[in-house]
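Hi, can you check this record?
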Amino acid sequence: MSEVLVIGHRNPDTDAICSAIGYAEFKRRTGMPEAVAARCGDTNDRIDFVLNTFGVPAPKFVADVSPKVRDVMQTRILSVTPNTTAAAALGLMDERGVRILPVLDGDRKCRGLLSLFKLSKFLFPAANRLVDSRRVLSSLANLAQTLHGDLLIAHQPDREEDLTMMIGAMSVESFSQRLDTFAREKLLIVVGDRWDIQNLAIREGVRALVVTGGLKVEEKTFTAAREKQVSLISSPHDTATTAALCRAAVAVRHVLNEEFQSFREHAPLAAVREEAAGSGYKIFPVLDQQGGTVGILSKTDFLKTVNRKLILVDHNELAQAVPGAEEVEILEIIDHHRLGPMTTDQPILFRNEPVGSTSTIVADCFFRQGVTLPKAIAGLLLAGLVADTLNLTSPTTTAHDVAVLRKLEAVAAVNARTFTEQLFASGSLLTLQPAPKAITTDCKEYTEGRQRFSVAQIEETGFDQFWKRKQELLAALAAYRLRHQYLFSALLVTDVTTQNSLLVVAGDDDFFARIDYPKLEPGIFNLRAVVSRKKQLLPFLTHCLRRLQAEG
């Protein structure tokens, strides 16, 4: 697999989605055709409005980028069915140079593994198992197929039977005496041009007669065999070879190893590596959710390199990144937030600018390098920019945002003010979503020292819906904080029309004591002229946290 995922943070907002799509387009146009826009969270009504407005599909959903079993498994499965003969399976093993084959039924369910070792023990038994060497467990049709012979007379050829093979290489008297020691209907007689032996076997009513050497069968032998209902097979091989091949006509379901170890295709590679290494099995069937076999994993497959790489946009902290990001190579980071604790194994392109949105930076990449900016992508980047800067009214807005927005308006043929009004009217989280969903749609995790906390933001036109649902929002925020064991969880509810916000906090009393904004109700504070989580709220919260740590 070879892909580069351009992906925003968990619980992506409009800027994260739009900058991911825009930067993936930029990378493809500048020599990286494998760049793919991705997301690790659901879209919301406002994001859907933006995507539908400009006719662009949502980025590929990726829940986890850590290497999975399916990333290294062999998808071209060399297998046999339960009814395949041992001879056919051995031929396939020899042709492809393999020692183990999975046995799959019609539904692709694995019935077991067929090993060359176990086949050899069955076909070439030890000296103390000579009785077993005469056993032929097969149908006459499979027997003829294995011998590459002709089924000249067939009575119930598809019925599987447990037969005893006898070689007609003795005198008629001795052969007659031997016949008396076996049930005639279970006997398979292998003989060359011994017409006397052939005729005696037919008169005694054996189950089947195999004439070796490709010799012509006389008409009187045909007639007698039909009358006695003795099946007749012509083998092109000599008697010794024919006898050896007869046992290989057995269906592999009788000689497979029914015990095996399998893995699910989406299982993390790191989780199964140790289990596979300590296993005595050589190959492992890989199953899908329905239990069908979709691949084969061998121990050497763990040495393969998973060529999945990441470009992070709109964040630079692993706590906010798609799960598994720490296990794959990060090529670039394009962001406009504070620097978080992240290290990489090698130097990367890290573009971090103090502007109002990541979409601003992405658009600037097109403009600076003279890369053609498609109209739809310009529209998306405009949407990301106005969403993050509240159409240039946020304190995070810079002159560069203003200049880039003017260029985007021209390319997209969109009026930013009109579009912003439509954007914020397109969906209210507090109206459309249950409380647990509303408080996590745009939520980020942060780390300060040894403490972890979360900050979410909801942008609304007015606070009416908040006051109607404050109790369930407070309860959902408290439950979210306990579930993740955060020091506190904060929610910034912003009125985009008045440029004011409400701060809702779930935490302990010691932390509440450090918040010096006007308290409206328990856990709810009034933040006038505060609209930016990044530039206004986060610095304040980290300041409160440092005071708590210093005084504690």
